[in-house]
Amino acid sequence: QSVIIDALCNRITSKEFPYSNELVGILLTGSFAQGKSHPNSDIDIHVIIASNINFVKHICQVYENRIVQIQIYSLLKFKNDCMKHDRKRPAIYACKLLYDVNGQCSEYLNYSKKYLDEGPERLTAQEKQILLTKIKTEIYTAEGLIAAGNELSALLLANEMVQLVINYYNDANHYWMTNNNYLFNEFKEHNEELGMLAEKIIFCVAPKLKISMLKDFCRKCIPDFDKINIEYCYEVQI
Description:
The chain is of the alpha+beta class.
């Protein structure tokens, strides 16, 4: 696979590439950068170009029978992302710098190292309450859908709730958020027992059993889940 990635870099740095004159850096991200690729993994490339306009452009193409996702980042957008601290891992995580014409990419990536050490931003009290309220009310909704004979919608809603519960658990334990491609694998690394239960819920197609398992999952991930008051009000000021 390194041969394909090297060939892609050569294409991007050549004059044939539309942004070659503005090229600042090239980064490999995604499963290849993490060493978690599989036979059908796409190749994720971030191309940084010299621009003070905050923008991202997405290009998807097939190269050597491999899907290639190319994100064209302005240098300003890349800088802003590197200096942003939220619940997702900083830009420095799981990326490999393939090309850095004047060291600017390295400089901005170094900004994000301190955020990697600090860990993710926490949910606010209001955000936690909103999340917990949504989880509990949607479980009631799923039970109502089952009673009404709309079992497919109940199954899909339950799957969404598993992901929200994992998000709450990750925040409570100060774990980084991740996208759905790695969500369950990383969750199992944190807690194998809960990870196996989450997988069983996702694969379960018996609606009532699925909801019962989901409630048990909530009780194990969220302290005092049964005592949560779903009466909640909040105001957004514009």
